[in-house]
Specification:
This protein has helices at residues 15-27, 38-48, 64-73, 91-99, 112-124, 157-168, 176-184, 194-206; strands at residues 7-11, 31-35, 52-56, 82-87, 104-108, 132-134, 137-140, 145-148, 151-153, 174-175, 213-216, 220-223. The chain is an alpha/beta fold. A hairpin with a 2-residue loop joins strand 8 and strand 9. The structure holds calcium ion.
């Protein structure tokens, strides 16, 4: 069960299509951010690290193929599923899009019901990258191991899960409450301010590499992305 709503970025230059999609997504409880050209869309995805991207093929600025390619080759966005939106006449492009890393495509005109169904499927099979790596810090959720410069460090279960939640979405700021939800789910005996204690312990364990965790004033914490 996901406690915070899935966040979807829709990059589409046709205003009426954009409006209908946003309306339907919000009605279903998704959080939606919009961009109307390729460049802005790319920046938006990198900035807000959404759970899924809806990407039109024909766009001003960068076209959808270029945006897709860039997102799929950047380490901090490669895992985000992309559904391409294309006109029927662009089918050839779509084949390129799928080989370029898009996860699915849907041909215009499409029904909203079909689009919403495709989104659900894409979110369900969203791959969780197994080993997370930011700078010198590596986290393997399967082995429950954390290494700094190839040296294993000790974290408690709670600390490990908090760090994992942040490292899975580098660049995204989490409130303390969101961190508890993301890391611990139903387990609610950790009160809000305890997050600060856990973060302090994680930073101590990370030693010289503790700068991967940044304090976001007035919000909470985030892990920096590998690129910064
Ligand atoms: Ca278009």
């Amino acid at each position: 069960m996901q406690s915070t709503p899935y966040h979807i970025v829709c990059i589409e230059d046709e205003e009426d299509i954009q409006e209908v999609i946003a309306f339907n997504l919000e009605r279903l409880g998704y959080q939606v951010s919009l961009a109307d050209d390729g460049k802005k869309g790319l920046a938006l995805v990198q900035q807000c690290q959404p759970d899924l991207v809806l990407l039109d093929v024909m766009l001003p600025g960068l076209n959808g193929m270029q945006v897709c390619q860039q997102l799929k080759t950047a380490s901090n966005t490669a895992h985000i599923p992309i559904i391409m939106l294309s006109a029927r006449s662009e089918e050839n492009d779509i084949v390129k899009g799928l080989t370029g890393g898009a996860d699915d495509y849907i041909t215009k005109p499409f029904s909203q019901a079909e689009l919403m169904a495709r989104i659900k499927v894409a979110l369900r099979r969203k791959p969780q990258p197994s080993v997370l790596l930011i700078k010198n810090v590596g986290l393997d959720p399967d082995l429950f191991a954390c290494k700094v410069n190839d040296q294993t460090i000790k974290l408690t279960t709670t600390e490990f899960k908090l760090l994992q939640a942040m490292m899975q979405k580098p660049g995204r700021a989490f409130s303390r409450e969101q961190l508890i939800q993301a890391a611990l789910g139903e387990q609610t005996d950790v009160v809000d301010r305890n997050v600060d204690v856990h973060i302090r312990a994680i930073r101590k364990a990370l030693g010289d590499d503790n700068n991967i965790i940044e304090t976001v004033r007035g919000v909470g914490y985030r892990c920096c992305s590998s690129e910064t």
